[in-house]
Design goal:
Layout: H1 2-22, E1 29-34, E2 37-39, E3 44-52, E4 66-68, E5 71-73, E6 80-85, E7 92-101, E8 106-110, E9 114-119, E10 122-127, E11 131-136, H2 157-196, H3 211-225, H4 233-252, H5 261-270, H6 276-294, H7 301-339
Parallel strand pairs: 2-11
Antiparallel strand pairs: 1-3, 3-7, 4-5, 5-7, 6-7, 8-11, 9-10
Helix pairs in contact: 3-4, 3-7, 4-6, 5-6, 6-7
């Protein structure tokens, strides 16, 4: 009987511990670091930091102007973000740094800040501690006589140039504007002339390395990086689709770099140089990339390899077709030369 009670007690204790661990909230904490003293007018540091699993999605305070009584944000030095590995497993530390100042001597209070973080269908909040900063005014001895701030000095040519530029700089802008207008008129006249003659304004320079060879080399480099094997699935699909986009732009004249994935799928479907099986494979890769980037989908390892293989097969097929066409053209030219 005593052993039975002991067994029930141990079982209840373990079950309670498991329940507490299951119901534990996702780790999310926030804190603030700042300079505690300085001279009035000095640029002081204020850094708000937080730690959680998805630090990039934390809503942090956006400070501007007078964020606390007597304390002012310096906008030219503010809002510097940074993300680092966290202290806990699978967490990251995010931070935003501001520069602030005060213009009257005294003690000021740094307020506490609310941060919000959505995870697991819940909204988590964290509150930083408030702080205190002392601002001092320089001591001025009014009994001393008034002196020059700086003695007489020689003006260098560089300083003279700066002064003349500041005084007569508008003339330089007028000359630059006139030059830009003249260049624009010249290009317009050239465009009209070449358009009437049926010639392009600029003759594109043929790259020394064919686009398909450059794309295949980029694919080889991407494979060696092993991005998705290291957990960088989003970066993997970004590089993979960028290689495809650049090739389609250079080789087929599709504005693929500027298109969304959906727009590029439509353009691939309308391109007569891409056969139907290859169209389906490329569209599948682009659609999977969209899910990874915007829906945070996690494809299976074989899906990542399949995406790579479909792009590689398409490029190799285009390379083989180009080589076959080149051989046929050379053979035709040789035949015509022999006939003549």
């Amino acid at each position: 009987m005593r052993m039975k009670k002991l067994f029930l007690f141990v079982f209840a204790f373990l079950a309670t511990g498991a329940a507490l661990r299951t119901g534990a909230q996702e780790p999310f904490r926030a804190w603030v670091e700042h300079d505690t003293s300085g001279w009035i007018g000095d640029a002081l540091n204020l850094k708000v930091s937080w730690e959680c699993k998805d630090a990039e999605n934390v809503r942090f305070p956006i400070l501007h102007e007078e964020f606390a009584p007597g304390l002012f944000i310096l906008p030219q030095d503010s809002l510097q973000r940074e993300f680092l590995p966290g202290n806990l497993p699978d967490t990251r530390i995010g931070s935003v740094t501001y520069r602030f100042s005060a213009y009257k001597e005294g003690a000021y209070t740094i307020p506490s800040f609310d941060l919000e973080y959505a995870a697991g269908g819940k909204l988590h909040t964290a509150l930083t501690d408030s702080g205190r900063v002392l601002l001092f005014a320089p001591i001025v001895d009014t009994t001393l006589g008034i002196k020059d701030i700086r003695g007489i000095f020689d003006v260098t040519k560089k300083e003279l140039f700066k002064e003349y530029t500041a005084r007569y700089g508008f003339i330089l802008w007028i000359l630059l504007g006139a030059a830009a207008l003249a260049a624009g008129l010249w290009f317009l006249v050239r465009y009209i002339q070449r358009k009437n003659a049926g010639k392009p304004l600029f003759i594109p320079r043929k790259p020394s390395v064919p686009p398909v060879d450059r794309a295949l080399a980029s694919l080889k480099t991407l494979k060696e990086k092993q991005l998705w094997q290291k957990g960088a699935v989003k970066e993997y699909y970004t590089e993979l689709t960028d290689i495809l986009r650049l090739y389609l732009k250079e080789e087929m004249g599709i504005s693929a770099v500027e298109m969304t994935n959906d727009e590029l799928c439509d353009a691939i479907e309308e391109c007569p140089r891409i056969e139907a099986p290859a169209q389906g494979g490329l569209k599948e890769v682009l659609q999977r990339s969209t899910l990874v980037k915007f829906a945070k989908n996690e494809p299976a390892p074989d899906e990542n390899e399949t995406s790579f293989d479909k792009v590689e097969e398409f490029l190799k097929a285009m390379k083989q077709a180009a080589e076959t066409a080149e051989k046929d053209t050379a053979a035709k030219e040789a035949s015509e030369k022999n006939m003549n």
